[in-house]
Amino acid sequence: MALASKLKGIPYKWRQVVLGCTICVFVYATFYYTTYRSTSATDEAKKNYYFTEKLEPPAPLESMIISQRTHGFDNFESRLPQIQTIFNTESWKERVVREERAESIKKAFMHGWTGYKTHALGHDELKPLSVEPSDPFGGMGATMVDSLSTMLVMGLDDEFDQVLSLIEEIDFKVDTDISVFETTIRYLGGLLSAYELSDNPRKHILLVKANELGEVLLPAFDTKFGIPYYKFNPVTKEGINNSTYLADMATVQLEFFTLSHYTGNPVYAKKAQAITDFLDSTEYAHGTRLPGLYPNEVNLYAGYFSDSIVSFGAMGDSAYEVI
């Protein structure tokens, strides 16, 4: 009663403030107590698990990707772990929705592909406004090669079979400066992914062309530290740059390891691994203080990063996605 009489003397506005603060303190105390007890119990369970269970250390990544008994070509071995997810069984409603969405995406793809096939087939890309072909990636049919795996995923087997004959005619020894990075991800990646997905009886064409392209690109890695040129002429076998970007040099591992896996030739995997080894060997010499972060630009001949700018955007992004 005494407290009630005292509260009556307090303005209504301040009584609301006091009541609100009291409620907040009560809610916070309840939340903190329940969360703390729950977290403590969980942490204790985890601690008991880790200290009582004998956990086997994971296998070294190198043994999962590539195993080589000798340096000889004939004894090359490669094992790639499965990375595909296992999907749950979908309901008929989910299937209907998925198929409708897939059909819409397929129509959009066919719209773009028909335009390219009509006006720029064999060229790298089609300019949508001028409807003219363009060749920014060496003029070897980048859109055509890059679309192979998409066709297979969409079930466009007739389109794929038509393009396969054109793929066989590509000459990768073009007398122009090409980006090693773009050529690897678009052409080599396109050929290898289609080879993995296809059950076409002529799929061997894809691996043959991938190996041809791999051989064309190998001289681009003949630098002091094994770092590939930013741009490279397949005919003269000369690079035009003294430096390159992190994304360009460290985004070839997936394609080159896969090429070694299917051809049995370890040279491609060795070239890719040399880049990773170079990055590992730099430690903190380039000025960063966090392991695994590297500046954007490196000097090919000095084997040293040219600046200390680290970026997950352009010039650095895909390196972190791959390595």
Automatic annotation (TrEMBL):
Cofactor: Ca(2+)
Pathway of action: Protein modification; protein glycosylation
InterPro entries reported for this sequence: 6hp_glycosidase-like_sf, Glyco_hydro_47, Glycosyl_Hydrolase_47, Seven-hairpin_glycosidases
Keyword Membrane in record: yes
EC number, as in UniProt: 3.2.1.-
Segments traversing the membrane: 12-33
Catalytic activity: N(4)-(alpha-D-Man-(1->2)-alpha-D-Man-(1->2)-alpha-D-Man-(1->3)-[alpha-D-Man-(1->2)-alpha-D-Man-(1->3)-[alpha-D-Man-(1->2)-alpha-D-Man-(1->6)]-alpha-D-Man-(1->6)]-beta-D-Man-(1->4)-beta-D-GlcNAc-(1->4)-beta-D-GlcNAc)-L-asparaginyl-[protein] (N-glucan mannose isomer 9A1,2,3B1,2,3) + 4 H2O = N(4)-(alpha-D-Man-(1->3)-[alpha-D-Man-(1->3)-[alpha-D-Man-(1->6)]-alpha-D-Man-(1->6)]-beta-D-Man-(1->4)-beta-D-GlcNAc-(1->4)-beta-D-GlcNAc)-L-asparaginyl-[protein] (N-glucan mannose isomer 5A1,2) + 4 beta-D-mannose; N(4)-(alpha-D-Man-(1->2)-alpha-D-Man-(1->2)-alpha-D-Man-(1->3)-[alpha-D-Man-(1->3)-[alpha-D-Man-(1->2)-alpha-D-Man-(1->6)]-alpha-D-Man-(1->6)]-beta-D-Man-(1->4)-beta-D-GlcNAc-(1->4)-beta-D-GlcNAc)-L-asparaginyl-[protein] (N-glucan mannose isomer 8A1,2,3B1,3) + 3 H2O = N(4)-(alpha-D-Man-(1->3)-[alpha-D-Man-(1->3)-[alpha-D-Man-(1->6)]-alpha-D-Man-(1->6)]-beta-D-Man-(1->4)-beta-D-GlcNAc-(1->4)-beta-D-GlcNAc)-L-asparaginyl-[protein] (N-glucan mannose isomer 5A1,2) + 3 beta-D-mannose
BP GO annotations: carbohydrate metabolic process; ERAD pathway
Protein name, entry field: alpha-1,2-Mannosidase
Organism for this UniProt entry: Rhizopus delemar
